[in-house]
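As the work plan foresaw, our protein records have gained a C-alpha cell line. A representative record is set out beneath this paragraph:
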Amino acid sequence: MRRNQGFSLIELVVVIVILGVIAVIAAPRFVNLSKDAKANTMLSVGAAMESALALLHSKAVIEGQNIGEDEITISGVQVPLLAGYPSVDGGDSFEQINAQVQVWFNIESVGKNVIVANPSAAPFFIDKASGLNQIYIFFSGAPTTGNRTEYGCQVRYQNLLDEGPSVRVLTNEC
C-alpha cells in the first residue's frame, strides 16, 4: 500500500521565501517598464511629428506658401505657416491649435481646456506658448497648471523665423 506524501512545512516555507525574493527583485523592473513605455511613446510622437512636418513643408513648397508668413488649408482647417512650417497664432484658442495640429500631424489629442475638464478625454493634450511660437504635446496625466513648459515628459514644436522649425522631446519625467 502506497502512502500519499505532500510537501512538508519546511519545503512550503522555502518555496514561499524564494517567490518573495523573486518578487522583490522583479517588481521594480516591471515598474520601470511603464516609465520606459511612456518615454518611448514620447520619442515616437516626436519622430512622427518630424515626418509630418516634412510632408506639410513639401505641400507648402508645392503650393508656393513656403516664404514668410502664410497659411494653408488642410481638411477645412486653416493652419498658419512661417516659412512653410506651422506657426502658433497667439490669438487661437487651445481647441483651434489642437485642430491645427491634428490636421498636419494625426494624433489623438484635445486642447488643454478640455483635458482640465475631463482628464480622460484623450491620451494627449495640446498646449501652447504663444509668445515663443511653441506647441506642446503632453500625456493626459501631465500637470495642467503651473509652468508646464518645464515638465520633463513632453514634445515641443517651435518655429522661429531665424532658426526654423525644431522638435524637442523630453523624457526624464515620464
